[in-house]
Structures are given as structure tokens and as C-alpha cells.
């Protein structure tokens, strides 16, 4: 898969761990995140990272900041993005299986690197299946279009 990856300065170290892990697994990573020692505005990073997912350049996106919350809030402003904060196996799993998330957000101040990599592998290995959640995901997309006016 081609993955769009972004971080702010609070999550630079975690981003680098994630990047190396994804590349070792054979994924192509487009790094949109802060560099070492660089201070950035996380909304700008989230928008740039998610634009690549929304326009089809990348298959999925990963965003990391201090908590994952600000990145997720920004990401969900981008048309076509369904971002979820994932800090445990259940939220990571359900973000794909119930909500067809295409962007995973994590907090470097919340999850240890080992847990982040575990959650990432879980999330990357899942695919949304058409079923009982389909009408809910379709309704999310309906409201996205409805309020974009």
C-alpha cells in the first residue's frame, strides 16, 4: 500500500518508528510530517497528509501528534476522509470494520511505540466489508456532502 504519513513535533520520534516499520513491511510511505526539531502547525500537516488520501494518491493515512485528537478533528474536515483516533485494539479494529476509516490517528503521549506498531499492524491488516455498517458509512458520506454546501 501507499501510505501518507504526518506528524507534528510532539510525535516526530513515533513517526520515524512508524515509517521504518511500514517500509520494512513493504509499504511505500509519503512523509508529510515535521522534521527533527521542526515546529509545525498540526492542522497544516493533517490537511496535507489527508489530501493525498482523498485524491487517491495514497491508499491510507496515518497521523500522529501528542494525543491524536487535533489531527483527527482536522482530518475529518477534508472531504472523503474518515479519520479515527485509535489507542487500543478495539478502536483500531472497529474504525475499519464499522466505519471504513481511511486515516488512523494516534497520540505519541498516549500510546507507547510498541503499542502503536501493534495497532498499526492490526489496522493495516483489516478491510471494510459490506454489511450491517454500510448504511451508516453511507450516511456519514451523505452528511459530508450535505454540509459541504
UniProtKB/TrEMBL annotation:
InterPro entries: RpiB (IPR004785), RpiB_LacA_LacB (IPR003500), RpiB_LacA_LacB_sf (IPR036569), SPI_LacAB/RpiB (IPR051812)
EC number(s) reported in the record: 5.3.1.6
A Pfam family it matches: LacAB_rpiB
Biological process terms in GO annotation: carbohydrate metabolic process
Superkingdom, taxonomy of origin: Bacteria
GO molecular function annotation: ribose-5-phosphate isomerase activity
Keyword terms: Isomerase
UniProt key word Zinc: no
Assigned protein family: Belongs to the LacAB/RpiB family.
NCBIfam families: PRK05571.1 (NF004051), rpiB (TIGR01120), rpiB_lacA_lacB (TIGR00689)
Protein name: Ribose 5-phosphate isomerase B
